[in-house]
Amino acid sequence: MPKLDLSRLPWRTGSGYPGKLAAEVGGRSVQPLGDPGGLSQFGVNIVRLEPGAMSSLRHYHMEQDEFVMVTEGTCTLIDDQGAHEMLPGDCAAFPAGDANGHHLVNRSDAPAAFLVVGTRTETDTAFYSDMDMKVTVTGRTFDFTRKDGSPLTADG
Quick one: which H or E segment has residue 116? Predict the structure, then answer.
């Protein structure tokens, strides 16, 4: 099994969220590990959150499982049951189709990071718990709409 040299793998910033919603995840960086490792059945990423940053808008997937493990600092998991502090080694799992909207937020004054592993499917639908938005994924195409399928406004 080839060892990945994390010092040589680039970090990505930015977001695929439409309009002004992209700014909601400022302070988040993602280091893909699955693609450089040649994985095709599931994705693996390290996500780094600066103080005050969040991993994503609160969401859940219909076709894809997600698993997270905090590796550095303190993250707060926000889901339908409330806020849960997570320290290095703490894990959470989100089965496909479970309508428990979730995301991680760094409420501390130091950087935090977590490993995320997720199923790769050709299609997926995700819903956003705190707003009237869904995303339909086909391959690498993301189509953001309202939950009923109607178009979003220019600012999301």
Answer: strand 112-119
The label of the residue with tokens 């009237």 reads 132
User: CA of 151: how far to CAs of 67, 119, 139, in Å?
Assistant: 31, 27, 20
Cβ burial of 130 (10 Å; 0-12, 13-18, 19+) is: exposed
Instruction: Please report, as a single letter, which amino acid is at residue 16.
Output: G
Length of the chain: 156
Q: Which residues does 5 contact at the CB level (< 8 Å), separation at least 6?
A: none
Among the listed residues 84, 88, 121, the one whose alpha carbon sits nearest the alpha carbon of residue 105: 84
Give mean pLDDT in consecutive 10-residue pieces for the chain, a chain of 156 residues: 90 92 95 95 97 98 98 98 98 98 98 97 96 94 95 73
Q: pTM score, two decimals?
A: 0.93
Residue type, 32: P
Most distant CA pair in the chain: distance in Å?
A: 47
